Amino acid sequence: MQKILQQAGTRDLLMGNEAIARGAIEAGVQLMAAYPGTPSSEIGEVLMAASREANFYVEWSLNEKVAFEVAAGASLAGGRTMVAMKNAGLNVAMDTFMTLPYGGVKGGFVVVVADDPDAHYSSNEQDTRFAAAYAEIPCLEPENQQEAKDMAKEAFSLSEQLGLPVFLRSVSRISHASGDVLFGEVNTVPNTLGFNKHYQLPYRWNVYGPPGAVSKHEWLHSVLPQARDLADASAFNRLEKPAGAKVGIIATGLGGAYAREAVRRLGLDEDVAFLKLGHIYPLPTELVSQFAEGLDRIFMVEEGDPVVENMVRTYLQHQAAAVRISGKAYGNLFPPFGELNTDIVTAALASEFGLPLKADPKADVRREKEKLIIPRSSTLCAGCSHLASYFALKKALSQYPEDAVHIINGDIGCYEQAGYGVFAKGTLANDAVSKAYPPATPYDMLDTIYVMGSGISMAHGQSKIGYRDGKVVAVCGDSTFFHAIMPALMNVVYNQSDLTFLIFDNRWTCMTGHQPNPATGVDAFGDEFPRSDIPAIVKSMGVSFVEECNAYDQDESVDAISRALAFAGPAVVILTGECQLQLQRRTKKALAKTYVDVNLCNGCRACLAIGCPAIRFNAARNKSGIDSVLCVDCGLCAQVCPQNAIKVRRR
Ligand SMILES: Cc1ncc(C[n+]2csc(CCOP(=O)(O)OP(=O)(O)O)c2C)c(N)n1
After folding, report:
1. Residue pair 610/640 in contact by the 8 Å Cβ criterion
2. Angle at CA 473, nearest 5°, toward 530 and 546?
3. Which atom of ligand 1 is nearest to the CA of 479?
4. Which pLDDT band holds residue 180 (cuts at 50, 70, 90)?
């Protein structure tokens, strides 16, 4: 039995994402859709694993907007539904996200977004609680894994009570840390489906006009007072106020755990008032008023941006409360970027209260552990087909004059490591030098990396503006192709620009943990499903130069990329090579057979330029070597070695 399907009363250690999934099951979720994105992916994964036994529908949708609409549509038909995504995913779903609340929903609809303060896994630190307030829908923020489970469950009821989507905001350290969770009862009675054409409104409920958006916005505002009352009454908000307290802390979500521990460490338990907010939007104004009464100072502890701080400040200003509020927006309690932790919160409060900082009892242990960590740059895996693709691109570009400044626009996926090498090495931040920075290894290749799907349109813009100092190239992976590239590629075709576009098809959505996608050949449950034909899709868009080649065959790939670079107009090369982690999991039985013949190796280091972590160099002996545990016998280094010193051992 799946861990999250254990019976009510069970107590188990659950990751925050597992806890959210369990909450959905307890609420009787009927449909869940998601697109993978760290730190949210496991919510979809564990629900998928449980779905057949628990009898509900789950899918990996092609992107977050699609996932959002799948879950929204099912909710309009009355079902209990959930969508989950990472912070950036909400940007993709934003169009529908902003419009759906105007008419509301029918079946409970829960939108889970996992933010990533400190950007451990993301291109930004955006705080999506702003978006919940922007869309004017209730927002819950758990302090620990138990609350993550309880809130996920409660969010469905709240959503049905108000007829609004409910936002559940997690953060990396809730989603990915584990905590003790007590399981509750599972609702086994599904909502009855039914579509009401005029549900609650004297006009077509799901048609955005007429009477139009303003009337629907008015309806949304008619519901918000009730939403505020529910926030004031929420069990996820707790007020503790010692008599005579003059100073208070308002802490939200995980900030509550940090602040509570900091207060304990500083021995302030008896002196400060504490308002822990879990239901943060609409702001529970009654509670905030009660809390602020008689206080001179309020310190705000929240993970992310000063979202609640600004709401509290605005509200208390309206109430003419004479209290000074310090947080991230004003008062410099914490920097408005990066992540909080107990040490940071303790230090900030100690300084405000003029207290000495007590030594952290665990500091020595932490210091000892830090010594064990070896600093290293991120790499692609041994034998990764992206190494081969980049190596071929580097070779094809080397045929152009040395002073050419090619722009290689990257995208999001494992292949983004190709933009990190320059950082690891340290560069001369001088315009003249950095302009022509030559790539030494596949890790030095990418010049732009922003968000999923951005590379190709940036390349299109560069081509259209008339950039001719070098070639304009873009790359993307297979999952990214389906997520965001297709309209962008059609735009390139329609508006005709001269660029080379490489699709690195390794068959899986690897970066986020090998979820399947239409290029994989299996569906979300691992059952066979015919692979979508990316070359055929590209051709059908009207691209006249389309070539598919085996990424590991360097002659073939260099030739195809060279011809694409020389082609006037959009040229697409699809480089295929299944992710080696997936391939090796299915097939690896013994140590690799590739080795370096030390009699032939002259120490030229050409093989090192591939950037494969399985290739080593012994400086004392001036010889390369292969780590036969890591190596996957992909044969790339044997093709690259000018001495033919890399061979495959016969067994
Ligand atoms: C909008 C958005 N959604 C999800 C993610 C998480 N994410 C990072 S890379 C990636 C896709 C990687 O798959 P693919 O393009 O096939 O490249 P691979 O990692 O397999 O090389 C995803 C989903 C993200 N960064 N942004």
Report:
1. yes
2. 40
3. 16
4. very high
- Classified as helix, coil or strand, 56 is coil
Residue with tokens 């914490």: 334
- Which of 600, 607, 603 is CA-nearest to residue 622? 603
Question: Ligand 1 centre and the CA of 37: distance in Å?
Answer: 7
**What span, in angstroms and rounded, lies between the C-alpha atoms of 220 and 408?**
46
Residue reference for tokens 């004003």: 330
Q: Is the pLDDT of residue 453 over 70?
A: yes
Looking at the CA of residue 484, tell me the nearest atom of ligand 1. Answer: 1
Residues in the chain: 651
d(Cα 115, Cα 307) in Å, to the nearest integer? 14
pLDDT of the residue at 124 = 95
| Site of tokens 């050419």 | 404
Nearest residue CA, atom 2 of ligand 1? Answer: 89
CA distance 640 to 638: 5
Nearest CA to ligand 1 atom 5: 37
Query: The pTM is what?
Result: 0.95
Residue-wise pLDDT tens digits, 100-128: 999 899 999 999 999 999 999 999 999 99
Would you say the CB of residue 412 lies under 6 angstroms from ligand 1? yes
Task: Decide whether any atom of ligand 1 lies within 6 Å of the 45 Cβ.
Answer: no
Phi, psi for residue 305 in degrees, rounded to 5: -85, 170
Kindly report the CA angle at 478 between 131 and 389, in degrees rounded to 5? Answer: 125
State which of 449, 509, 574, 575 you would mutate to test the pocket of ligand 1, scoring each by most atoms of that ligand within 8 A of its C-beta. 509
Tell me the best of 113, 511, 574 to mutate to test the pocket of ligand 1, counting ligand atoms within 8 Å of each CB and taking the most: 511
Average pLDDT over residues 12-37: 98
Q: Write phi, then psi, for 453 (nearest 5 degrees).
A: 90, -5
511 CA: nearest ligand 1 atom: 19
**What number of CA atoms fall less than 13 Å from residue 573's CA on the CB side?**
27
Summarize pLDDT for 528-566 with one digit per residue, the tens: 999 999 999 999 999 999 999 999 999 999 999 999 999
Cα distance from N-terminal residue to C-terminal residue, the chain: 43
Sequence-separated (6 or more) residues with CB below 8 Å from residue 286: 232
Query: In a mutational test of the pocket of ligand 1, which residue from 40, 386, 412 has the highest number of ligand atoms less than 8 Å from its CB?
Result: 412
37 lines ligand 1 (CB under 6 A): yes
Taking only the tens place, the pLDDT of each residue in 392-450 is: 999 999 999 988 999 999 999 999 999 987 655 666 666 666 666 667 788 989 999 99
Strands (E), 135-230: 139-140, 166-171, 178-182
Cβ neighbours of residue 454 under 8 Å, at least 6 residues apart? 409, 411, 448
Atom of ligand 1 nearest to the CA of 37: 6
413 lines ligand 1 (CB under 6 A): yes
For residues 313 and 330, the answer to whether their CB atoms sit within 8 Å is yes
Residue nearest to atom 13 of ligand 1 (CA): 509
